[in-house]
């Protein structure tokens, strides 16, 4: 029964790591809303790395942010948190694979393997916390900009 739980924990941790890596590349972290407009000429998308636009003819253009230091602080912090999340997930995968009792990596000392597996679980928890902070912080800033009547950028 322990082996099944450990394998399920490894699979869930792997899926969390993959989802964090995929969400980092998704282009529509921020998307323009033109629902109340009669004429929609273009849609704007933005993520942590680039800004994209597509128009009604189907032409799609993306451009990377020109400078790291020209970005707002929360985008830089979200980038760092997401990268840290992926690194923590990789460490979690490695430590969990070594610490599983059904693996032969690391010998037969099950007490040490159990502690290593717990350390892998801690890395997975830290990965989830970093991802939740980054996504929640970014969403909070988008919501504040959307409801701020003095914000001059794209809503």
CATH top level assignment of the domain at 2-27 and 69-147: Mainly Alpha
Query: What fraction of residues sit in β-strands?
Result: 5-15%
Tell me the span between the first and last alpha carbons. Answer: 52 Å
What is the makeup of the main sheet? Answer: 4 strands, antiparallel
Number of strands: 4
CATH architecture assignment name of the domain at 2-27 and 69-147: Up-down Bundle
Based on CA inertia axes, which overall geometry fits? Answer: elongated
CATH topology of the domain at 2-27 and 69-147: Butyryl-CoA Dehydrogenase, subunit A, domain 3
Report what the structure shows.
It is a single chain. The chain has a domain at 2-27 and 69-147: Up-down Bundle (Butyryl-CoA Dehydrogenase, subunit A, domain 3), CATH 1.20.140. It has helices at residues 2-25, 73-99, 110-147; strands at 30-31, 42-46, 50-55, 60-64. The chain has a 4-stranded antiparallel β-sheet, with no helix packed on it. The chain is elongated, with a radius of gyration of 21 Å. A hairpin with a 4-residue loop joins strand 3 (50-55) and strand 4 (60-64). Helix 1 packs antiparallel against helix 2, helix 1 runs parallel beside helix 3 (110-147) and helix 2 packs antiparallel against helix 3 (110-147). The longest helix has 38 residues, at 110-147. It starts with a helix and ends in an 8-residue tail after the last helix. The protein contains 3 helices and 4 strands; from the N terminus they run αββββαα. The mean pLDDT is 83. The protein has 155 residues and is α+β, with helices and mostly antiparallel strands. The chain crosses the membrane at residues 73-95, 116-139. Claudins function as major constituents of the tight junction complexes that regulate the permeability of epithelia. It is a multi-pass membrane protein. GO terms for molecular function: structural molecule activity.
């Amino acid at each position: 029964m322990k082996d099944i739980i450990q394998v399920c924990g490894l699979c869930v941790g792997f899926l969390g790591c993959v989802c964090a890596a995929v969400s980092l590349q998704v282009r529509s972290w921020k998307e323009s809303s033109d629902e109340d407009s009669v004429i929609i000429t273009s849609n704007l998308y933005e993520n942590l790395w680039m800004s994209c636009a597509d128009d009604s003819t189907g032409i799609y253009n993306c451009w990377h942010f020109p400078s790291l230091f020209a970005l707002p602080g929360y985008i830089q912090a979200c980038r760092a948190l997401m990268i840290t999340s992926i690194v923590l997930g990789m460490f979690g995968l490695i430590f969990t694979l070594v610490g599983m009792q059904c693996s032969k990596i690391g010998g037969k000392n099950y007490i040490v393997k159990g502690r290593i597996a717990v350390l892998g679980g801690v890395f997975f928890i830290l990965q989830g916390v970093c991802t939740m902070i980054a996504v929640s912080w970014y969403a909070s800033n988008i919501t504040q900009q959307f409801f701020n009547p003095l914000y001059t950028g794209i809503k």
